[in-house]
Amino acid sequence: MQESSSRFRNLPQAVLTFGGTVVLTSLVVTGLIVGLRELGKLEGLELGAFDGLMRSLPDKGPDNRFLVVGIDDVDIQTRKEYPIEDGTLAKALTKLEDQGAEVIGIDILRDVKQGAAAGRQELVDLLTQSERIVAVCELSRADAPGTPAAPGIPEDRVGVADLPVDAGGTIRQGMILAIPQKSNIPLPVEHICNNADPENQLPSLSFQMVVRYLQAKDIEPEQIKSGEIKFKSTILHRLQTKAGAYRQLNPGAYQILLNYRSPKNAVKQVSLRDLLADKVPATAIKDKIVLVGYTADIVKDTFYTPYSAGSADNQKMPGVVVHAQNASQILSAVLDQKPLLWYWNDWQESLWIFGWTVLGAILAWRIRTPWLLVLGGGVAIAILVGTSYLIFIQAGWIPLVPPLIGLLASVTSVVLIDRYAATIVKTVKGFLKINVEIDEKKKNEEVAAIVESDYFLDLQQKAKGLKSRDKNEVSATVEPPLAGKFKEKVIDTTPTTQPIQSRRSTEIINTIPTVQPTQPIEFVDYLQQVRDKRNKLKASAQVSDASIPETIPAEIVDGKQEPSQTENQEEMAYLEQLQRRGKKMREGKK
User: Fold this and answer.
1) Which of 68, 177, 263, 589 is an S-S bond match for 201, by CB 3.0 to 4.6 Å?
2) Res. 61 pLDDT band, cuts 50 70 90
């Protein structure tokens, strides 16, 4: 019963300790982390964690709805063509159409004629007549005028070849729509891909192919109130300026997070030479989305992906394959009900970070054994990473690095505050004590130097002389005892020329108590009473100067004349100054 009552009495203190140590520490740590995150200081670490999670996902295998016809280094060397000529490209497109490709995307810029004029005309005619072919252009930028699509292709069958690349050169987003930027370079020719009108939203190559593929299945895109695009029940949620770890995304582009299928096996690939040699079976082409583009290293149309950091070779992925990956994830979401990558809003992410920060603080507050604390922290980290991975498998991208930092920072902070605060304070006090002792020693040395100086010794001699003179003055003023008694009042009214300060030190206005005749009072005791009364008179300011005679004759002590009025004033001033200095030094020493 007593133990229960004691616990109840200690409850408020425990709550205060918990609140001050755990909650307050968690709030401060969370605030710092969220602030750093808002400034973009954690973006690199978080995107690195995103790449790690992407690499850890199981390989989804190839999407059988796609085929990539890659123009590799062997094709270029065999045909002695670079860039590939218009006639060769026209032959490849014709074969794909003849074998029943649903949509054909050309990831090759073809604004300038390549090869013979006959091949050029054949390509232009094919692009003009076919409804299945989508050609690409390149958007204008501040430092580039953009590249138009191939001649003869209608604007509604033009797709943007540009890919959204992060600051580190890695592609983590898929393009849906984009607006050309105003170029600072004079435009050699105006076209749809350098028209910087905000209303000129152009579809990416991957999105253009997806729309045409779904339209063949009677699935039309819709625009909802938020301005986002919807296919049946699947909404392509547009990345905001702040999305996940990103803090400053391009507000003019319509982009989504790119959920890769596989690092090397996302879509089936064949070479151009095999296609032209009829080595590709018709079943691999019929009803498929076919992309034609460069996969050769010499072209430099390759990009870093989240898989690059985990690969020793072939770190870059061809742009034509990246387009296929983006188109594949959209089709998987619409037709297979596979979720697109999603993320939380700001307040949900902040609450998630705060929760893990509180958990770390509680672990450090409750667990006192170091190895148990390390074990508990390790388990918490494993749970955090495991939870993030399981949610990422379900296409959810939640913060991993910020809560991890919050967990470790809160554990460290609480340990330092709760365990070692007293030690730290004691150490600091020790340093301060050393400084105080050093200052005290220095002060004592200065005092000793003053006391041992000739000037101070001279002042002491003068003080002794004044004391001796006071005794003589008193002996000259007091009447000898009569019949064992003193008179009750002794008042010195003798005129003098001494200054007021000297007069007050020597005059006696006192009532002497009556003593028993049988108790002789020694003269020394009387002198002590006189000195005490003199000190009281010096401190008192109630004595009227008018009642004191203006002059007092000089006294002769032991046959010697008293010092002059000016000398008395100087000596008294010296004594008072000496007393004040001594008092200050005693107070400083304390």
Assistant:
1) 177
2) very high
- Asked if 321 and 368 sit in the same domain, the reply is no
Instruction: Collect contacts of 531-536 with beta carbons under 8 A, ≥24 apart.
Output: 531/470, 531/474, 533/508, 533/509, 534/470, 534/504, 534/505, 534/506, 534/508
Tell me the pLDDT tens digit for each residue of 574-583.
666 666 766 6
Amino acid at 364: A
| Whether 202 and 305 share a structural domain | yes
**408 pLDDT higher than 70:** yes
User: pLDDT at position 76, please?
Assistant: 96
In 3-state terms, what secondary structure has residue 57? Answer: coil
Sign of CA dihedral 423, 427, 429, 430: positive
Q: Which residues pair with 270 in a beta bridge?
A: 69
DSSP 8-state code for residue 305:
-
Q: How many angstroms separate the CA atoms of 426 and 480, rounded?
A: 67
Whether 402 is in a domain gets the answer: yes
Query: Among residues 260, 267, 342, which one has the least CA distance to residue 304?
Result: 260
Q: What is the mean pLDDT of residues 380-400?
A: 97
In percent, how much of the chain has pLDDT > 90? Answer: 60
Residue 411, both tokens: 């554990």
Q: Which domain holds residue 113?
A: 57-335
Do 311 and 391 fall within a single domain?
Answer: no
> Are 279 and 135 within one domain?
yes
| CA-to-CA dists, residue 51 to 48, 54, 195, 319, 405, angstroms | 5, 5, 35, 18, 18
188: in domain: yes
Per the CB < 8 A criterion, the answer to whether 361 and 413 are in contact is: yes
- Distance separating alpha carbons of residues 195 and 178, to the nearest angstrom: 11
Tally the domains of the chain. 3
- Number of CB atoms found within 10 A of residue 431's CB: 9
In tens, the pLDDT along 67-100 reads 999 999 999 999 999 999 999 999 999 999 999 9
Closest CA to 535 of 495, 571, 508, 499: 508
Q: How far is CA 7 from the centre of its chain?
A: 40
